[in-house]
Design brief:
- The structure is a single chain.
- By secondary structure, this protein is of the alpha/beta class.
- It folds into 3 domains: 47 residues; 111 residues, no CATH class; 268 residues, Spore Coat Polysaccharide Biosynthesis Protein SpsA, Chain A (Alpha-Beta Complex), CATH 3.90.550.
- It is built from 9 helices and 24 strands.
- Strands 1, 2, 3, 4, 5, 6, 7, 8, 9, 10 and 11 form an 11-stranded mixed β-sheet that branches.
- Helix 4 crosses helix 9.
């Protein structure tokens, strides 16, 4: 400051200087308050408006399959369902799949956790031992959990590092390891595939109503194709909540076989993927049902020393506390032999397509000299892999249930052709339920609009 300036400042009255300083201080305080208010406003606005935008910027968009069969990119394989595996050490997801046996390559598991997806982790591929010579086989793919991640979605890839947007993910099911006391069902029936425009309405209805009387709460149907009348019936039972229909368009992905042996029947996969549907059904309902019955739609697993399934299984389980698998003997009731009285040849059922099981009371004696197939009741938590007539891998014991305790009523074409009625055994077990059964079948057919009195 120059001497002149200093002198001029000394000549300014002190009162005026103090007033100017107070004014400056007030202006500075107002400016700081305004600045702070504006900054606070910006923070509030950002807090309210930007999280969604920021999330969308960070979010990785990927496709989640809503189909029961999903192709794996750059392979000849398909995934069906992904399930958290609570029974093995470590955190693992098991993917029920269908693999082309001659085209297996290293695969990697991609997980999506919140807003990010991981690089691939090496997958363990376990092809099931039963494939009956067909090119495609039911396969388990085991995926180890990534570190610091609780994933909800998983996909398979042939590469370690890929863009999630280029793959289709499966939702991971069975995330919660529920206890049996929390299960919604005690007994669930898993029915392997309906195909060939199946329209056996009367037998289907009688079978479902028999299972209701026996204590079953849910029947799961994997449906490739069914006839027009059966479609109406399925819709009716699904609306009621007793039947769960899983659409199974296997014929859109390969040439499925109508038979069980490749050398005789050809095609890509055994019985429209029957083995895959049975395994998927077990895992799908592992923490929903105490027991699962694995059988075909024309078979009924019937107790003979108990009125219903719950007391029968309670008795069997108490006798065999470590058992997880119960084999039930198959008894064939030829549809060519009829009850002579024809008492259940009801006029109102004659226009309903299908077999009337109540008219077939004669059964073949099983030929124990040859292989005799069983169907299965399982505690699903004790099963790892199953075939049609036996469980391939389990964590507990297997019990063959004596036929006097329980066996299958299987109305179909004769197995041992040439047997006359005199060579067959009379078995009227279904008639023990006749009062409720006939009435309930009538009601079910009426609900579906398939019965006119």
């Amino acid at each position: 400051m120059s001497p002149h300036s200093y002198k001029s400042l000394n000549n300014v009255p002190k009162r005026l200087i103090m007033e100017k300083m107070v004014t400056f201080s007030r202006l500075f305080s107002l400016l700081m308050a305004s600045t702070l208010a504006y900054l606070l406003y910006v923070v509030i606005i950002l807090h309210r408006s930007t999280p969604d935008k920021l999330f969308q910027q960070k979010q990785i968009l990927f496709h989640i399959s809503n189909q029961s069969i999903t192709s794996v990119k750059n392979t000849k394989h398909f995934t069906v369902g992904a399930y958290r595996e609570h029974r093995v050490k470590g955190h693992v997801v098991r993917i029920i799949s269908i693999f082309r046996r001659d085209s297996v390559q290293p695969l990697y598991c991609l997980f999506c956790c919140g807003t990010h997806c991981t690089n691939g982790l090496k997958a363990e591929v376990q092809m099931h031992s039963d494939h009956f010579g067909f090119p495609f086989v039911t396969t388990d793919v085991l995926c180890p959990y990534p570190a610091n991640c609780n994933p909800l979605y998983v996909a398979l890839s042939t590469q370690v590092s890929v863009l999630a947007q280029n793959h289709t993910f499966l939702s991971i099911q069975n995330l919660v390891n529920r206890k049996e006391v929390d299960f919604p069902f005690n007994f669930t029936v898993c029915v392997s595939n309906l195909f060939g425009d199946y329209n056996n309405v009367l037998q289907f209805t009688q079978t479902l109503e028999m299972y209701k009387l026996l204590g079953v709460q849910r029947v799961v149907i994997y449906n490739t194709s069914s006839g027009p009348d059966l479609k109406r019936l399925l819709q009716s039972y699904a609306q009621e909540g007793f039947v769960e229909v899983v659409q199974w368009p296997i014929d859109q992905h390969m040439d499925p076989s109508r038979g069980w042996l490749f050398s005789e029947h050809g095609g890509d996969i055994h019985y429209y993927g029957q083995l895959t549907t049975l395994n998927d059904c077990i895992y799908r309902h592992m923490y929903q049902s105490r027991y699962i019955l694995l059988n075909d739609i024309d078979e009924i697993i019937v107790p003979y020393q108990h009125e219903t399934l719950p007391p029968m299984m309670e008795a069997l389980q108490s006798q065999h506390p470590k058992a997880e698998v119960f084999l039930i003997e198959n008894h064939i009731f030829p549809k060519t032999q009829f009850d002579p009285s024809r008492r259940f040849n009801l006029p109102r059922w004659r226009n309903v397509p299908g077999i009337n099981i109540m008219e077939h009371i004669y059964k073949e004696e099983p030929d124990y000299k040859n292989y005799h197939p069983y169907k299965i009741i399982v505690r699903p938590r004790g099963v790892e892999q199953t075939s049609v007539h036996e469980v391939l891998r389990s964590f507990g014991e297997t019990v063959q249930v004596p036929p006097k305790v329980c066996h299958i009523i299987h109305v179909r074409v004769p197995l041992r052709k040439g047997l006359t009625k005199e060579n067959l055994l009379e078995d009227k077990r279904v008639w023990d339920y006749k009062g409720e059964l006939v009435s309930n079948v009538d009601k079910a057919l009426e609900r579906a609009g398939l019965l006119t009195r």
